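ok so for the tutorial part 2 we go from a plain amino acid sequence to predicted structure tokens. step 1 is just haveing the sequence, like this:
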Amino acid sequence: MDHGFSREQYREAMTRMGTAVNVVTSAGPAGRLGFTASAVCSVSDTPATLLVCMNRNSAQNAAIKENGVLCVNTLGAGQEEISAVFAGQTKLRGDARFQVGLWCVLQTGAPVLSDAAVSFDCLIDQTMEVFTHSVLICRVQAISEGNNPSGLCYFGRTYHAFPPCRSDPIR
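step 2 — the prediction. this is what the tokens look like for a chain of 171 residues:
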């Protein structure tokens, strides 16, 4: 179907939609892995649920589904290097990527970035295949508020830091 625009025009237009920068991690029978993602959003607060989109052609797609768990680590200001590592823009691959940053675990065993702005530890509840991507519906099991109160956004093919929006912890 011709919409009057090309795939390239669409992709370029999407660079003007600022998004939070997330590193989605997983651990389990298929190993410890992670990838940088911008397509993450809240679905519901009852129960607490997130939506994560992942390219079906990613080498990590089947592994994350096999593990059945993931953690959405929302990066804060100054964490551009972690984003680049998990986006595959460095020589680090596989488990070696976890050499960058301080990591711990919560309930699911998925790696949690200790100094992320916030981390959502999740069980994968549903998976849908939609064109080029897998859409993962994830139930939040635990939340960790890191010590980085600033946000990191990706807009116009570059990173932008946001100042802290509040000083009181999430309750």
